[in-house]
Amino acid sequence: MFRAIGDYTRAELDAADRRYRRWVRRMSRAKRFLAWIAEDDRGRPIGSGALWLTEAQPRPRDPGPYRPYVLSMYTDPRHRGAGVASAIVRHAVQYAKDRRYSRITLHASEMGRPVYARLGFEPGSEMRRRVDVPVRRPRTPARRRRPR
Ligand SMILES: CC(C)(COP(=O)(O)OP(=O)(O)OC[C@H]1O[C@@H](n2cnc3c(N)ncnc32)[C@H](O)[C@@H]1OP(=O)(O)O)[C@@H](O)C(=O)NCCC(=O)NCCS
What we know:
By secondary structure, this protein is α+β, with helices and mostly antiparallel strands.
């Protein structure tokens, strides 16, 4: 998935894979991670996606301690446009509904956005900023001169 959506080196991806695998094992053992794998008619994997129960602070109408988050969506390029990702997201939504969560969140890539939008996902209130590089601030209007 990261090779498809970002400009990463092979070494960065391999290192991230190893860390991700360890993290998935840990989350799975804690029963906070599950995934769906779609197969073709010969049992070969063609796409997958996962749901992680993130730890969440209690707030009104949402006692926590977890919130479902969709991640790691990927469909083999030869099988795209056939509804594989949509089917996986529908399963994730059903899982969240069955367990009475009030919402499900994700971060969308350019390719994923239309798929999620069609399934009812909409932009939320999240804001973010880089803290590892200098931030380019938006230009502020010149201070208004006091009338003489
Ligand atoms: C994003 C990605 C996972 C979508 O996978 P996909 O299996 O092709 O997605 P779907 O087939 O469910 O939906 C894609 C298109 O197929 C169409 N489609 C065809 N049959 C369909 C069906 N039975 N049900 C739903 N959609 C169907 C949809 O209309 C949709 O078209 P649109 O999004 O252009 O409007 C895939 O492009 C991918 O792996 N991209 C690279 C990695 C990435 O960006 N991952 C997402 C990170 S958030």
